[in-house]
Amino acid sequence: MSGNESRFEQNSEGAGYLPGLAMDFVIFGFDQDQLKILLLEYRNTNLFALPGGFVKENENLNDAARRVLGERTGLADIYLDQFYTFGDLSRYDQEPLRTIMQAKGMDPKDDHWLLRRFVSVGYYALIDFRRAAPTPDPLSDNCVWYTLENLPALMLDHNDIVKKALETLRANLDRKLGGNESWAAPLLAKAFTMGELQKLYETILGQKLRRSGFQRKMLGLDILERLEKQYSGGAHKAPYLYQFIIDK
Amino acid sequence: MSGNESRFEQNSEGAGYLPGLAMDFVIFGFDQDQLKILLLEYRNTNLFALPGGFVKENENLNDAARRVLGERTGLADIYLDQFYTFGDLSRYDQEPLRTIMQAKGMDPKDDHWLLRRFVSVGYYALIDFRRAAPTPDPLSDNCVWYTLENLPALMLDHNDIVKKALETLRANLDRKLGGNESWAAPLLAKAFTMGELQKLYETILGQKLRRSGFQRKMLGLDILERLEKQYSGGAHKAPYLYQFIIDK
DNA sequence: TTATATTGTCTCATTATGGAACAATAATAA
DNA sequence: TTATTATTGTTCCATAATGAGACAATATAA
User: Fold this and answer.
1) Which SUPFAM superfamilies match (chains A, B) (predicted)?
2) Which of A165, B37, B193, B217 is an S-S bond match for A26, by CB 3.0 to 4.6 Å?
3) CA A177 to C1' C9, whole Å
4) What is the average pLDDT score of chain B?
5) CB atoms within 10 A of CB B234
6) In this structure, is the CB of residue A237 within 7 Å of any atom belonging to strand C?
């Protein structure tokens, strides 16, 4: 992190990084029946942004994504999906970043590398809300979970990026219904009830599903192992707990 | 095309273009029951590549894609899909491009902008085989249709790019089956038989489909208009001709 | 005129899905 | 202790979708 700090402040040329290329992340977590994503906050500016990063000159693009994801969440081995590359000219707006840098006491020149035009590769990730250690980058003051329905206005085209990420995630859910479902594992506890799994689907898809049909389909996929243990805590029949079958 | 020529030869800095960012195209056409894509050939080098291009400094990424697609095929208003961005270090191999430039009588220095590392945004397009005017770029000698099953070994990671494009196209076919099917229009004649449409699906998906089921599903989508005209030419009952319903 | 290949449609068994019912039961209220 | 309540796991059935094939229709070739 110490070497990280310097790339923003001391190095006005962005040496060691590919010029004009950035990455932005839509990092999904699931907590209390809500989908959330990680946002960066900039104090005194009222600006919010997606976590992002840059690609080193001797680094694979997707490796850079994993590295930055680790830097922001402390997590490795994450379900990570490159979903779109954003390259509109409307992204090229020096104002927000200049405001942020000035709020940090910097006085960047017009040709500071961070103020140039960037094309940004979008990734989304599904991570374990409970294990994540949200960490702001050197320019930000905070890295916080925001409920998807409650997002503030974000910098540049970042709201569009979130929208596209969610669309892609939904489409992939449909397609992956037949395959290995372990994508959902990081979003749930190790053992979970069928109701919790259904709630996760409903939250991502933004619509209610029929209970019996959902149970029928999930059990039919042979990806769930029913545990003998039972959950307790509600004034009703105790549901089974399930785990995803690994390997498969 | 005149201004195009100069960007490769006279301008060793690539001025006016975003550095390190390229686009590669998998341009699909359909002819004689075969799926084909456009390849560039380089004489005296035995090298083949996907058509590609660069993004101007004051141009949207997707607009650049449409521009380059027009330059290579002469076509506008094309179904164009950005499917993945390729950024592995293994792409960074000066040899093929140096060979090509030398075969053209150029002697580029090691830091010639074309010999630097590029991250490339992949697009695929479905175009009308009959209306296309394949046009090589200034570095290439030829722009030719190749059957997908007969592709030669391509430069750099271009075979991977083709593979990924086909995977994406197939996945999108499945998803779009319920929606508007006009994506298929550029690949077929204005009027076509159900058998021709089925053949197109089978070729893209790489598998046989059941005839009665295909007909049932297609007619049920309400996207086809049955024409009174009938095709003739085979020693059998004449099939109906169909058109896609526009607007819808 | 007959044969042949392919088409448009239909049939029927099988499977999947929508929607609801039902008994089971863990906690809570009486 | 007993009744109540909310939620679960399962079953049921009507409807829809799908797989696999049968059959008559017919434009050309023999």
Assistant:
1) Nudix, Winged helix' DNA-binding domain
2) A165
3) 34
4) 90
5) 10
6) yes
